[in-house]
Specification:
Distance between the termini: 92 Å
Shape: flat
Amino acid sequence: MIDRRTAVQNRAGHAAVILAALLLAACQGMDRLEPDAPLGGDAADRGTLLEASGPRLGGGRLTEDIATRWIRQIEAAPGEARLRLADRFLEEYPDAEVISYLHELVGDAHSELGQPRLAADAWERAIETSWPAPDLLGLPLTNLELPYEVGWARYEAGDARLGADWLARTTFIDDRPQLEQGLRFLYAELGAPGDGFEPWLQGRLAELSVRAPDFELPGYQVDTLALSEVDAKLTLLNFWTPT
């Protein structure tokens, strides 16, 4: 008869065999999911290859796995180390899908290092390379925080007027109370120009906004209607045909 001690040893042996098999199966998949080679080295030949001919993907063998590892490492790196890693990535994959986010991380690093001008430059590049593309005012359609950060960084870099312009433009897409508070502060920093805050702000918005050229179209219940005759802040043109 097999005693209790022998039975326990047998069960332990079976469990060890099962565990070894599970580890072997997992390791077989790790080569595909988590390449062992250093970033930027032979690992670029492994993983799921991203289509290099797409409009927003760069050349080379950038894969989803490799891009994810790059991003994780860059996010975790502080200050100067983050900038070095980001420079390597931007040099190897200048047209990758994550370029906008990379510029944002670079801006964060410069801000951490007390370099507001460089931070603003990087955040502006993040907006310019964002997807979907920025609107006619140069404002992002997704990350609404970036223009706000750019405005304050420009002010901290010594350009209060440019900072105020960025905050003013941000009011077209964001109505947070901090925006008006910030604009009032920058208005005072600029020496309170004009006849008061509200006229000054409306003047800045008028200069920053994009205006359509005046034109005329056949009107409804009128012969013609000119855009300049429409007394509205927002005008929607709906082109349609009944056929």
